[in-house]
Design a protein that fits this description.
11 strands; 4-stranded antiparallel beta sheet; alpha+beta; 4-stranded mixed beta sheet
Length: 157
């Protein structure tokens, strides 16, 4: 009999496979982002010029009509569940908008009492006047949303 040396076939480690899959996913994501950015350069530049949580610019083109200014109580706000946004009026004529998705565990929130939006999942509370955390476990404020106020109409950008 001939003695042949059999070498074991080495398999890639789990770490190598995970790294390869992650790199492929990153390449796909970057490619998708790049093509989207190229197609929307003009809208990105326009959006960057109007930064901030609110815009008092006239005639918001294309947004979702939310409410009339009279519908938003001063010192409080109103939740728009379908759009996942709360619009508030901290002072007369000053309107702000924030996401109603809790920054702790992404739970949707609809429970608004006076100026406080509460999360039924874990008890976090937020001010609808400035988006700040009033009570944890959340530590991050609510994300600001773009709105425009034209006359007596409030539109989500």
């Amino acid at each position: 009999m001939t003695s042949e040396s059999v070498q074991p076939v080495s398999k890639p480690s789990r770490r190598t496979v995970v790294a390869a899959v992650g790199a492929a996913g990153l390449a796909v994501a970057l490619t998708a982002c790049g093509s989207e950015d190229d197609a929307s350069d003009s809208s990105t530049e326009q959006g960057a010029a109007g930064g901030g949580a609110t815009s008092a610019a006239g005639g918001g083109a294309g947004g979702t009509a939310l409410a009339k200014t009279a519908d938003i109580p001063e010192g409080s706000g109103k939740v728009f569940g379908d759009q996942k946004v709360v619009v508030s009026q901290p002072a007369a004529g000053d309107f702000k908008a924030f996401s109603t998705i809790c920054t702790h565990r992404d739970c949707p929130m609809i429970d608004l009492k006076e100026d406080t939006l509460s999360c039924s999942c874990h008890g976090s509370q937020f001010s609808v006047l400035d988006g700040s955390v009033k009570k944890g476990p959340a530590t991050e404020p609510l994300a600001a949303k773009q709105i425009s106020v034209s006359g007596d109409s409030i539109t989500l950008a």
